[in-house]
Amino acid sequence: MAATYPVALNIAEQPVLVVGGGAVAARKVVGLLSCEATVTVVAARLGDELQELVENGRCKWVARRYQADDLDQATLVFCCTDDPAVNARVSADAKERGLMVNVADCPELCSFYLPSVLRRGSLSIAVSTGGSSPLLARRIRLGLESQFDDDMAAFIDWLRSWRARAHAALPAERREEFWMLATDESFHELIRSGQSGQADAQIRALLDEFASGNAGSSS
Asked: Which residues are CB-contacts of 210 (< 8 A; sequence separation ≥ 6)?
């Protein structure tokens, strides 16, 4: 099996097609909506969770079986049915059009796989087995949860607040060295303990040193 290429997709406001109306399809739709995708579900019937999402205007429902022209506006495709013939047809149709497709529990029909994801604000840690064992990926992800607490989200937001200033003040060749120090656990601990003012003072001093050429290995 060829190695997969990991990416993080920005699918906000992008049209995504989900074929199937059961519990698996519902989980896919909830995840897609959390990323602000525009979701259309094609299924003859819907389970309760999807029905509620449709009634609340969260996604669109086309109440019939899949047809090839359902792909016309899609940028990404998910197939979640228990009908092997439908799964194979959706996969083949999507690939013929150059669309990325994921077929639940059928890795041989997929052009991409869904990792098990740990999220802490803007931090996403994705664990994938290339479709071989989603359960193992989930177990590994659960093992990582204790290593990355909820305070990590605040730390990342704080780092983002300094990014533009650091990039404006430093030439490209100095930035990596600066961020190696700025992402040190000592800064994380200050943010975790509510000492953002002290963290700001320390990173400002660090940035001034790098900008003046008085810090780092090249000084």
From this structure: 169, 170, 174, 177, 178, 216
In 10 A of CB 112, how many CB atoms?
18
Number of domains, the chain: 2
Please give the model's pTM, rounded to 2 decimal places: 0.76
User: H-type helices in the chain, by residue range?
Assistant: 23-34, 48-55, 84-96, 134-145, 151-169, 172-182, 185-192, 196-212
Nearest partner of 98 among 80, 67, 77, 84, judged by Cα: 77
Residue 127 lies in a domain: no
The DSSP call for residue 4 is P
pLDDT tens, residue by residue, 11-65: 999 999 999 999 999 999 999 999 999 999 999 999 999 999 999 999 999 999 9
